[in-house]
Amino acid sequence: MIDEIGKSLLKEVAELDALPVGAYNIRVNGESSARNTTANIDIVSKEDKSGIDIIIKPGTKNESVHIPVVLSQSGLKETVYNDFYVGEDCDVTIVAGCGIHNCGTGDSSHAGVHRFFVGKNAKLRYVEKHYGEGDGRGKRVMNPTTEMHLEEGASVLMEATQISGIDDTVRKTIATLAEGANLEVQEKVLTDGEQKAVSEFVADLNGEGCSCNIVSRTVAKDQSVQHFSSTLNGNAPCSGHTECDSIIMNGAKVSASPNLTASNVDASLIHEAAIGKIAGEQLLKLMTLGLTEEEAEEKIVSGFLK
Amino acid sequence: MLELKNISFQAEDEKEILKDVSLKIDDKIVVITGPNGGGKSTLAKVIAGIVTPTGGQILLDGEDITGYSVTERANAGISLAFQQPVRFKGLTVRDLITIAAGKELNVSEACSYLSEVGLCAKDYIDRELNASLSGGEIKRIEIATILARGSKFSIFDEPEAGIDLWSFQSLIRVFEKMQKEYKGTILIISHQERILDIADKIIYIKDGMVEQYGPKDEILKTLINTAQPGCDVLMQKI
Predict the structure, then answer these.
(1) CA-CA distance, B61 to A61, in Å (whole number)?
(2) Fewer CB within 10 Å, N side or C side of chain B?
């Protein structure tokens, strides 16, 4: 059963008011609470460990899978292994998300290990949203690991967002790209208070003509600490771009370390990293439009993370 | 009406940028012109509250706004189009116009301001205000935000700066249209004859002082007659 707290978490991480259309698996406090499969999308529980296999038939178009996770039991720690098999020529959306409500004293943590096997010429949009709430002393911890394996001509857009309430996170994303594959990653992170966030990307661009674009925008407030690292390995004629753009406020600390390695003369790799406070002229401009300094700051931050 | 009483401003290096400037501005379009470094932009910033004057008083419709913050002045009815518009990663043209209007706008309302400045609204409304916009585009968007505000006193700091000849033609049309339809006073800082031409009155500022202030025709005549070639200092040395 999903209680009121669970429902509000579901709304935050999956924008769901009711059960979603299409395939879904909803995990509440360590157990599968609702599941639906369709003619093209099968969801099977793993037998050797916690987690599910999501199998999407080749050629499936315009279907979606929702696999939200909610934790409202303080002190619960879990690691879940989910494997996604996206068949050739599919065009699908997968929405994963985790919401933690911790009002107790024990640390609650969720570690999702997601592996994606994206078939030839398949198109996938993967949306992942992390959210935490609750006023207990127990920490809310999330450590997602994402593995993306793109076959020839596959294309993946990954949108990862963590805007609120996660005390500690180590996010690892690794990807391998075959010929002509394309991976776009858009990451948005906001930390405040004493929160810590680490995000590490490693992409191996192995196939001719593959491309990868990793864009991370983050805001660090108060005393929070962020670290971003991004490694692109260009092993074939390919193009790769990685960008980390951070706004630093108050007493926060942000570090960024892009890392490029090319082992092919036709690999073209670019990195950009910028860390800075909100520009004074941006605040002034919005103030001349009638906003107070605080309102201007809020607009700039929310626009940046949109 | 905007009234400046004995406004002075001294920079940190003690250079006097504005010296005892007193002005009453209540015509529809007033253009400030004069040599670079003469204090024109500083005066615009003093009016908008970005720069605090070292001395003097500013009144808007009789209300003393000298002690008002930037936000308070904006809400009292003062707008400023920056000489170099600010870029924002993430905020869109629609976001900025909505903030400027101070209320939620539907798409057609937001688009109408862009059309006014000669931009095809559907191509721009959802664009980010980032480095992908050209100087001319962002300048016109800046002007659109001022139109959206509809303030009683709007300042444009060198609207022609950074835009090409073709954009300039449409910029002139924007001001011509504002002259006919806009309610409120428009103060433009400009060096362009075409812009001076649409003014009701012209203010000539040099070395931080108002040298001349009067009806357009009168001032234009004296400016043309007294125009000196090149730089004074250099001329004296030759």
Answers:
(1) 64
(2) C
